[in-house]
Description:
single chain; 11 strands; 14 helices; about 15% strand; alpha/beta
Amino acid sequence: MVQNHVPASNKNHPNCNEPRKFSGLIYLEDSSTGPVSKLSRNAIELLDKFLEGPNISLATIGWDDTKSTKALEVRHKELREQWKTFVDRGASVIRLAAPGKTSQEVSHKSEDIFKLVVSKAEEKAFVTNRSQWKGKEKKFGDRFLEDARSTDIVIPIMGPTGAGKSTFVNAVAGKTVAVVGHNLKSETSYLQPIILRHPTNPARRIILVDTPGFDDTYVADSEILRRIATWLAQSYSANMTLAGVIYLHEISQTRMLGTARKNLDMFNKLCGDAATQNVILVTTKWSQVQEVTADRRESQLKDRHWEGMIRLGAQLARFTDTHESGWKIIQSILDHLVSSDVDAVQIQKELVEVQTMLPHTQAGQALRYTLEELLETQRVAAAQLRKDENSNEVKAMLHETERKIRATMKEISQLSTPVGHRLREWMKRVPGQ
């Protein structure tokens, strides 16, 4: 345990007569052994009851056995699931390496976890407690930042597939930390947080979040929305500060295509009007287009597609594939953070503070409307193909269109509110209930 105390020899210290208080709890579990024992569970639950405002760090040990890395990873995930109650309340879960045996995968040492607990205790007095997210939209296998801190500065990187999100993250980090795709196939299906050091404040971290686009190669748009929404809701409940959002658009596109328009519309619904002042609209891939042409397209974006966001305070920037141009964008967000009174986006407020179900959020409703339009277009195409169903080629096209119709209908059903929930909401509005 970590205690906040004053040395007994210092009689003149202003706090020498104050009682000692528990500042936090560090709990270790050997991931190389079997299931968590009942005694272990009872111990941590009992100790937690005596902590005012739990500040717990849960660490798995035994990672020095490099031959059993896969088994240890499975065990670590099992333990994290068993510790879900504490994780949902803000507890950190990290891998603790043995002294002198820190590997690339296990980067935390004993002093790291001690600093984490102490920093959380020191932050406590300055943090505005937010509502706790109930996590109804979570699914098994969801990935969140394991050692989230209230001093963390979150900056999501969003945009269509191929806009250069992973390239931007790698440039800012100064090394390869995200996989870059070189075609229309998405390389990012889950949100990937990249931790960077703050340039001036060692007590804070910058968390760049590489996000998938709403045109993923293999993952449905409804699932992409759920993954983005749940990650943001979890970070909000952990009191992390969302300092700004970067939206990337490749200047090499000749016009605003359907996928780009859909991504921009969803981005607007996720952010909301109030948080648009913290948005930076970034154009990429300037080296692929002549400067005169690129300048003209940038003007069209400002005047036609981004005009409303700019009016609400969004800023413009260019990313030229260099560390300097990328970091300049990050620095502008850090500078704006000092004066900004907005530290969350609309989807976070909807899911956590208002406790709106994901299908009822602005983003959920917008995506459902888009899918319903798509479904109608697919049905019209299928009807036309059935009239000309004479060749094997047309039959194959009809088969593929019908498959797409089923997939779209499945996505729409995933954005539908369960009957039981609708009934409960209706009963709340009935007088006398």
